[in-house]
Amino acid sequence: MTVMVNAGETNGIPCHADYHLLTEVLKGEWNFRDLVVSDWEGIKHLYTREPGGHSPKEAVRIGVMAGIDMSIGCRLIQLLRPPPRARQGKGRAPSPGSMTR
């Protein structure tokens, strides 16, 4: 089962940044253990549409910390890739599990 996060807001908080909604309610109270995905470019909207001057990297951090497991339609995930040195076999790349909460 998958839940896609709405691109809107709840009580003035963008749903992609809402820790209470995604983690405390959905994953906590409702015990949802499957995949939570962003709406199309929902993470990107955290820095292009929301006031506050978030950087792309900060938008990814906010979404992941709120409870997003996968970003749809957005290349921001590139910010979480291992550095070129690791991709060339000259360093240790992080495991996929270490890149999530």
Summary, kept brief:
The chain has helices at residues 19-29, 42-48, 56-66, 84-87, and strands at residues 2-4, 9-10, 13-14, 35-37. It is an alpha+beta fold.
What would you note in describing this structure?
There is one protein chain. By secondary structure, this protein is an alpha+beta fold. The protein has one domain. The protein has helices spanning 19-29, 42-48, 56-66, 84-87; strands at 2-4, 9-10, 13-14, 35-37. The chain starts with a strand and ends in a 14-residue tail after the last helix. Residues 90-101 have low confidence and may be disordered.
**What is Rg?**
14 Å
Mean pLDDT: 78
Helix-strand makeup class: alpha+beta
Q: What is the helix/strand order?
A: EEEHEHHH
Strand order of the largest sheet: 1-4
Largest sheet: 2 strands, parallel
Number of strands: 4
Number of domains: 1
Low-confidence stretches: 90-101
How is this fold's topology laid out?
Blueprint: E1 2-4, E2 9-10, E3 13-14, H1 19-29, E4 35-37, H2 42-48, H3 56-66, H4 84-87
Parallel strand pairs: 1-4
Antiparallel strand pairs: 2-3
Helix pairs in contact: 2-3
Which key features would you list for this structure?
101 residues, alpha+beta, two-stranded parallel ribbon, two-stranded antiparallel ribbon, 4 strands, disordered C terminus
